[in-house]
Amino acid sequence: MKRIDIAYGGNAYSIGNRDIDEMRAQIAATVAGDAPAFWLEVNYGEGQFRPTYLLISAATQLSLTPIAGDEETLPSP
């Protein structure tokens, strides 16, 4: 996977080199578990890496969109 695009608070972010299934599991575990929240490091903007931290909790509304690399095909759900 090339990257994961994230929509959060009306803004677009991205994460590279992460597995979407692992990321979904981490978010689900936080929502279901004892930990009230965690900070997710993402990139903001295009081009130069600008680290940004999003607070993820049970009340967070976000979407994850996997973006395939040039030689990769994403499986259908």
Rg (CA only): 13 Å
Q: Spans of 5+ residues with little confidence (pLDDT < 50)?
A: none
Oligomer: single chain
Query: Termini distance?
Result: 15 Å
Mean pLDDT: 86
SS elements, strand count: 5
> Fraction of residues in helices?
10-25%
Global structural class: alpha+beta
Overall shape: it is globular
Query: Order of strands across the widest beta sheet?
Result: 4-3-2-1-5
Largest sheet: 5 strands, antiparallel
Q: What is the count of structural domains?
A: 1
What is the number of helices?
1
Percentage beta strand: 35-45%
SSE order, one letter for each helix or strand: EEHEEE
Descriptive notes:
With 77 residues, the chain is of the alpha+beta class. Strands 4-3-2-1-5 form a five-stranded antiparallel beta sheet. The chain has one domain. The protein has one helix at residues 20-32; strands at residues 3-8, 11-16, 37-44, 51-57, 62-67.
Could you outline the blueprint of secondary structure elements for this entry?
Blueprint lengths: L2 E6 L2 E6 L3 H13 L4 E8 L6 E7 L4 E6 L10
Short description:
With 77 residues, the chain is α+β, with helices and mostly antiparallel strands. It has one domain.
Brief descriptors of the model:
single chain, 77 residues, alpha+beta, five-stranded antiparallel beta sheet, 5 strands, 43% strand, globular
